[in-house]
UniProtKB/TrEMBL annotation:
It holds the Pfam family NB-ARC. Residues 309-383 form the Disease resistance protein winged helix domain. Residues 59-222 form the NB-ARC domain. GO terms for molecular function: ADP binding. Coiled coil: none annotated. InterPro entries: Apaf_helical, Disease_R_plants, NB-ARC, P-loop_NTPase, WH-like_DNA-bd_sf, WHD_DRP. This is CC-NBS-LRR protein. It comes from Quercus rubra (Northern red oak).
Length: 393
């Protein structure tokens, strides 16, 4: 997806001799808990209304609603808002979230549905490449029950071929009670139609306004401070927001990148950076990703790139990730600060989280510490590309 850029850093005005900024030790939740949806008032209620509506006698069962938009626009975030809504939980007998991604592996998706419906089901103990028995189990588990199922991040390089793969799922899912709902997130409207959405149940997500992108940036950049303390930076911040092309993910990345910058000349330098002129498939995301990536130390880069060993949408355990980093020898011990290896690894995790390289954090209910996270699929693609350039770092 991304073309190689790391060997051309001088062209982008990146100082190769500069030292990466050290992150002040902050509680991660205060840095990254800014996933509240802004600028989605026109969309926020649409999925809920469709999910909770009574429907007509002629309505197909299950009804398929699709959220459509480019990568980084906030489809999954909006879907999660509906999925986690307390009214939804009480309205349906069963609620299931399944990440599909590319390539579509039918048996994996079927098993993921079973896992959510019955985590201890006998079929989960065995490896199988035969779809039909798994879908029989799905039919039995949802029969006469009103379910809400999210298929997140559905792709189709060949609509006809993928449509044939999905047909057995569509048939199995008709066994649910009337009023069951499926919510699909995808970048392609043809995929939404393939999955069974009608035009009236396709919600196309538009880009955020500059004001909304600026709101996201300043929430992350200034954390507990107010913009009134940095009024001189607001005009520059709005220019940065304009460069996000209305993408929430781009705004989050820029917010993380700017969080330790308080001088006007620092903001001006970022605005003048040649990275903004790059063309990329995910318009508006390559510049913010490269800015954030190049600000990492070599050790932090290695820790970030290590995360490609996990599949897309994998729930990454924070403690296990840190153990992996230490076992790989990626952690630089800071003798001047008298900090042990695990403490340094924690700081690396915090910095990557602050830069929005991680998302979907789950906290410990007792102490509020982050237990797990995921990577956005675009960030995962970016990391995979940058692993090819790691030898040039």
């Amino acid at each position: 997806m991304w073309r190689s850029q790391s060997c051309r850093k001088q062209e982008f005005g990146i100082d190769l001799n500069s030292q990466p900024e050290r992150v002040e030790r902050l509680e991660i939740t205060s840095i990254v808990d800014v996933s509240k949806i802004v600028g989605r008032n026109e969309y926020r209620d649409d999925p809920l209304n469709n999910l909770l509506g009574v429907g007509s006698q002629q309505e197909r069962n299950p009804l398929v609603i699709s959220l459509v938009g480019i990568g980084g626009i906030g489809k999954s975030t909006l879907a999660k808002l509906a999925y986690n809504h307390p009214t939804v939980e009480h309205h349906f007998d069963q609620i299931v979230w399944v990440s599909v991604s590319d390539p579509f592996k039918e048996c994996n998706v079927a098993k993921a549905i079973i896992q959510k419906l019955d985590p201890k089901h006998e079929s989960l103990k065995y490896t199988t490449t035969i779809l039909e028995p798994l879908l029989c189990i799905v039919r039995d588990l949802i029969k006469d029950k009103k379910f809400f199922l999210v298929f997140d991040d559905v792709w189709a390089k060949d609509i006809l071929e993928e449509s044939q793969k999905w047909e057995p799922f569509k048939e199995a899912l008709t066994y649910g009670a009337k009023g069951s709902r499926i919510l699909v997130t995808t970048r392609n409207e043809e995929v939404a139609l393939m999955m069974g959405s009608t035009n009236t149940h396709i919600i196309n997500l538009g880009n955020l306004s500059v004001d909304d992108c600026w709101l996201i940036i300043r929430k992350i950049t200034f954390i507990d401070e107010t913009i009134d303390q940095h009024k001189d930076l607001e005009p520059l911040g709005r220019q940065l927001a304009d460069k996000c092309h209305g993408l929430p993910l781009a705004a989050k990345l820029i917010g993380g990148y700017m969080c330790n910058k308080r001088r006007k000349e620092q903001w001006e330098k970022v605005l003048e950076n040649s990275l903004w002129d790059l063309e990329d498939v995910e318009k508006g995301l390559l510049g913010p990703l490269l800015l954030s990536y190049y600000q990492l130390s070599l050790a932090e880069k290695k820790c970030f790139l290590f995360c490609v060993v996990f599949p897309k949408d994998h729930k990454i355990n924070r403690f296990e990730l840190i153990i992996h980093w230490m076992a790989q020898g990626y952690i630089d011990i800071d003798s001047k600060r008298n900090m042990e290896m695990e403490g340094m690894a924690e700081e690396y995790f915090q910095k990557l989280a602050m830069h929005s390289f991680f998302q979907d954090f789950e906290e410990n209910e007792i102490d509020g510490r982050i237990e797990s996270c995921k990577m956005h699929d675009i960030v995962h693609d970016f990391a995979q590309t940058m692993t090819k350039d790691v030898s040039k770092l």
